[in-house]
């Protein structure tokens, strides 16, 4: 794999010396007590903890025990005293080009006003609130207003339908829903309030619905239940004293993406989570005070929670926030925004990069991207071909790519190049090294550490401050999912390899690993080789039961050129895989499709491809982005019958 992917000579320009990293990393493992006591000063506490880590009820780890703080105070109030009153917290851009700049002072006023309105509605500390909102300023405002009064929020991505929303309201037993009349997507209005009304018919806990007027579509307001936001949130300066929360009071519940099965409600803490997200953003990206930071995810995902809302606000940064599609009105929307707002750091996903890559270089080339200095990615392993495009075309071979490996459950980055501590030479497709406090290992089925270069299951050998506290309402599922496969270790559910230089490579989900004639093959390696041909945009690989080999390799491929000759395409792909990876990796079948099933956060759902291809029932589809992808797979199979 190394010869194909190579190492980029970036040290001279960016690397202040890996020895800084090594030293800090070593300290974090050797003396965690002192390390975290010092690192926790990234926050302002009302009172300090009396214990850094309580591990007496393993695996229910508790951090900064006894510490008191409020996240909204840390995200906003304290900046007013630190000369950031008039600094932009958010530069908000609407799909139609509308723009709104909200300063830290403006954010403070909005949060206090909403917090007051919530108290007036009888919302108390510990109550659960569901947020079903588009990418508007009121989204971070609602999250922080909830945090200010100690209510636990659960954000449901606005792309989800009524069933998924109802399921999350029921699981969290929310008493209040905050939504909007509608949001904008590809020039159309998504009628959120209407979907919320449908969802509420399937739930019984919600007493009130607060509705934000945004898209100005007609909505039905239910008497005594529904309230307009602007009618209860005054425009004057109110002040709500922040609740003094315990470090281990829950801050929010967020459901995982549902790539592998039924989503799990990860419960995140107030203290440990906040220390973790602020620290990891600083370590990995090292933004400067004046940088414009753009995490182009949706707030409805953990990436948005941690790196659009909590970490950048705790650090006092200026963020770009964009409501709308990255290809609307044209596929240069991201590049246009970068040029117009002189963005310095862009953090996005492999799926976005692959999508934009498909449209070619002419779109980024229309824009001046010279303000960019760092690029980042998250969500899936990034195909080296997509990495190179991002590096060369978007970053003009100047910007390091911070490939961040982490999960909803981990709260923040776990493995990533760390610009703040000294960048290693980057290898396209590798997330490189663990963050301070992260202690990974790669195990075989028997729980033994594999040798360098061998593949296995990635685990974390010790807890870290940002880890989930439990699965909502289901301690048992928490223990079973994360701590039963290898007792004592946190099991990530991903497959990885560590190379001879100590770099970590993520090779996909461990339940998607194939066993082909006794060889354990990761799906990602083959997908990367397919994309590396330059003929395909993306691919989904899975194992099909085979009487001889155990499993046979099946690949569904989205070609770059929809009109390309299928037979030539398939034979070229086979040839390349044979050359790059070896004959055992060559797929037994390759099928050409127009699109692949993905989660709404853009991850390829191999389990759905596999189930449909094997004529099985594909399981939970509530997080599926577009159901036509399922028909697409079916017709590809039909075509070959
Ligand atoms: P579910 O757990 O419900 O199946 P999910 O795992 O997709 O959904 P997330 O928490 O959004 O939910 O995603 C975390 C997963 O995404 C990781 O376990 C890993 O498989 C993948 N991932 C995220 N970032 C990276 C990365 N940089 N490199 C490789 N894989 C990544
Ligand atoms: Mg997961």
UniProtKB/TrEMBL annotation:
Enzyme Commission number(s): 6.2.1.1
Presence of the UniProt keyword Ligase in the record: yes
Superkingdom per UniProt: Archaea
Annotated GO MF terms: 3-hydroxypropionyl-CoA synthetase activity; acetate-CoA ligase activity; AMP binding; ATP binding
Claim: ATP-binding is one of the keywords in the record: yes
Stretch forming the signal peptide: none
Enzyme class: ligase
Family: Belongs to the ATP-dependent AMP-binding enzyme family.
Protein name, per record: Acetate--CoA ligase
Natural source organism: Thermoplasma acidophilum (strain ATCC 25905 / DSM 1728 / JCM 9062 / NBRC 15155 / AMRC-C165)
């Amino acid at each position: 794999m190394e010869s194909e992917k190579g190492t980029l000579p970036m040290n001279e320009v960016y690397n202040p010396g890996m020895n800084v990293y090594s030293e800090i990393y070593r300290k974090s493992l050797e003396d965690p007590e002192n390390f975290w006591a010092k690192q926790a000063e990234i926050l302002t506490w009302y009172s300090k903890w009396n214990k850094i880590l309580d591990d007496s009820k393993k695996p229910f780890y508790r951090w900064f025990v006894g510490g008191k703080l409020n996240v909204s105070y840390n995200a906003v109030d304290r900046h007013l005293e630190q000369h950031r009153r008039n600094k932009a917290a958010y530069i908000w851009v609407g799909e139609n080009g509308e723009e709104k700049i909200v300063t830290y002072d403006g954010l403070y006023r909005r949060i206090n006003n909403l917090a007051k309105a919530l108290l007036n509605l009888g919302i108390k500390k510990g109550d659960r609130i569901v947020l079903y909102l588009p990418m508007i300023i009121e989204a971070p405002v609602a999250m922080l207003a909830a945090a200010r009064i100690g209510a636990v929020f659960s954000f449901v991505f606005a792309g989800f339908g009524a069933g998924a929303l109802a399921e999350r309201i029921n699981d969290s037993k929310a008493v209040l829903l905050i939504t909007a009349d509608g949001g904008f997507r590809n020039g159309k209005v998504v009628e959120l309030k209407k979907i919320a009304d449908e969802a509420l018919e399937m739930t019984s806990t919600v007493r009130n619905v607060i509705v934000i007027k945004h898209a100005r579509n007609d909505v039905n307001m239910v008497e005594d239940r529904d309230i307009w936001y602007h009618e209860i949130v005054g425009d004057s300066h109110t002040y709500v004293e922040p609740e003094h929360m315990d470090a281990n009071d829950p801050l929010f519940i967020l459901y995982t993406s549902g790539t592998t099965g039924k989503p799990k409600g990860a419960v995140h803490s107030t203290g440990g989570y906040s220390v973790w997200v602020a620290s990891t953003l600083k370590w990995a990206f090292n933004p400067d005070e004046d940088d414009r930071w753009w995490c182009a995810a949706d707030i409805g995902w953990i990436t948005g929670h941690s790196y659009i809302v909590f970490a950048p606000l705790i650090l006092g940064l200026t963020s770009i926030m964009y409501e709308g599609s990255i290809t609307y009105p044209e596929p240069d929307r991201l590049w246009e925004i970068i040029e117009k707002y002189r963005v310095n750091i862009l953090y996005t996903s492999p799926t976005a990069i692959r999508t934009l890559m498909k449209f070619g270089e002419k779109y980024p080339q229309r824009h001046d991207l010279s303000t960019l200095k760092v690029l980042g990615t998250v969500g899936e392993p990034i195909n080296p071909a997509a990495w190179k495009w991002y590096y060369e075309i978007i970053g003009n071979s100047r910007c390091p790519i911070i490939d961040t490996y982490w999960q909803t459950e981990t709260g923040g980055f776990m493995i990533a190049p760390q610009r703040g501590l000294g960048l290693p030479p980057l290898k396209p497709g590798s997330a490189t090294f663990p963050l301070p406090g992260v202690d990974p290992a790669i195990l075989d089925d028997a729980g033994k550490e594999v040798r360098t270069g061998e593949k296995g299951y990635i685990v974390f050998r010790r807890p870290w401050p940002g880890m989930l506290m439990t699965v909502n309402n289901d301690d048992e599922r928490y223990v079973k999912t994360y701590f039963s496969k290898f007792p004592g270790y946190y099991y990530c559910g991903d497959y990885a390899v560590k190379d001879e230089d100590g770099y970590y490579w993520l090779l996909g989900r461990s339940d998607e690993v194939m066993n082909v004639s006794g060889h354990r093959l990761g799906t990602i390696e083959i997908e990367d080789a397919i994309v590396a041909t330059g003929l395909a945009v993306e691919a989904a690989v899975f194992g099909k039961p085979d009487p001889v080999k155990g499993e046979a390799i099946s690949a569904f491929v989205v070609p770059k050129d929809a009109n390309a000759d299928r037979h030539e395409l398939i034979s070229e792909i086979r040839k390349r895989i044979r050359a790059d990876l070896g004959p055992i990796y060559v797929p037994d079948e390759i099928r050409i499709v127009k699109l692949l099933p993905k989660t709404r956060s853009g991850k390829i759902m191999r389990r759905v491809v596999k189930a449909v291809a094997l004529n099985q029932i594909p399981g939970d589809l509530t997080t599926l982005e577009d159901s036509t992808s399922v028909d697409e797979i079916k017709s590809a199979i039909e075509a070959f019958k």
